[in-house]
Design goal:
This protein has 350 residues and is of the alpha/beta class. It has 13 helices and eleven strands. Helix 2 runs parallel beside helix 10, helix 3 crosses helix 9 and helix 11 packs parallel to helix 13.
């Protein structure tokens, strides 16, 4: 039987932190520092991310992606607002009602599209029809996309621009859930600017935890928006997410930006996923559900095959709402031997 310890394809959340991130934490732990994001590491974030995105940004460090997304949406949408997102979006399926909680009741409105992406034409029609019942309807408030998507695909700059043009036509801000933002940047070989503010994104929830950090996320606000920032700062504190020792979050974010470490790690994870996808797609009883463009591989196969993999120590996620579909996630830390062992198991399985 293969080494069960290494066959973890369940989530990049389960991967360890990168050694350079750990080193940054050790350095930040040397001595005293001002509390509540007024430390020297946190105060460097605005400039570091402004350089990264090639424009002026404001940054709020946080420990969780759920908090980042929910604080953003709570600021951008009123309680009677409609937040448009894909049916597979993380904010719709995997945040336990936190966006609704932080907005005090805004409604998440799913808008369909292929491969986990919003369809601009369907979005336009949906928003246009939203006011048919006047005050009886929730009011259009925000458009939200996920990059990379929950299906493991990546929005191109042109696709984001098309969606953003619809949002701007209706006077709505654009939010991007970037839990796997670096994976999308790596796949697209685009600059961070090209697929954010230049394409019409107003606010980004930047993810680090899935990409080598221990627990580091950030709200990135593009442009000069003091009104939004006031609400975000207040909601971060009121919601219990203003950490007293925020230097340890900020130090991780800076480490990921330094010398492109985050892009390097995301690229490694993507390459491992591509290798896995290529091998699995050659199996006569396994099919890829969606294109593999980031670090997630979704496969459709028999129940017998899934049980065979599980019995031999392969950790993966059965995808809710889909029959006989499983998700396999690679991280920068996924060993090549784990991929080889998984492929071997599929060849010896039912």
């Amino acid at each position: 039987m293969p080494n069960m310890r290494i066959l973890n394809f369940k989530s990049d959340n389960e991967a360890p932190a990168h050694e350079k991130v750990v080193d940054a934490l050790v350095q930040a732990n040397d001595g005293y520092a001002t509390a509540y994001a007024a430390d020297e590491w946190s105060l460097r974030l605005d400039q570091a991310f402004s350089d990264y995105f090639e424009t002026d940004v404001s940054v709020l460090p946080l420990a969780t992606g759920t908090a980042a997304n929910s604080i953003i949406l709570g600021t951008l949408s009123p309680p009677w607002g409609a937040i448009y997102c894909h049916p597979n979006a993380h904010i719709h399926n995997d945040e336990g009602g936190a966006p609704e909680f932080y907005t005090h009741g805004a409604k998440l409105c799913p808008v369909c599209g292929e491969n986990g992406k919003l369809d601009a034409a369907i979005l336009d029609e949906t928003i246009t029809q939203a006011g048919a019942h006047g005050v009886h309807n929730v009011a259009p408030a925000v458009v939200s996309i996920t990059q990379a998507t929950e299906c493991g695909t990546a929005y191109t700059a042109d696709e984001i621009t098309s969606i953003s043009e619809v949002a701007k036509k209706h006077g709505l801000p654009m939010h991007m859930d970037g839990a796997r933002f670096a994976n999308a940047v790596s796949y697209l070989e685009a600059s961070p600017a090209e697929i954010t503010w230049r394409a019409g994104i107003d606010v980004l929830a930047f993810g680090g935890t899935k990409n080598g950090a221990m627990d580091a996320e950030a709200i990135i606000v593009f442009g000069n928006r003091p009104d939004w920032l006031e609400g975000m700062h207040r909601r971060r504190k009121r919601g219990g997410h203003l950490l007293s020792k925020m230097r340890f979050v900020s130090a991780q974010l800076l480490a990921l930006l330094e010398n492109g470490l985050g892009h390097t790690l995301a690229g490694q994870a993507n390459l491992k996923a591509q290798k896995l996808a290529k091998e699995l797609s050659a199996h006569q009883h396994i099919a890829l559900v969606w294109p593999v463009e980031a670090n997630e591989v979704f496969i459709e196969t028999s129940e017998a095959m899934f049980q065979h993999l599980e019995a031999n120590g392969v950790a993966f996620h059965r995808w809710p709402g889909y029959r006989n579909v499983g998700r396999l996630v690679c991280s920068f830390q996924t060993p090549d031997e784990a991929i080889d062992a998984l492929i071997h198991l599929t060849k010896t399985g039912p």
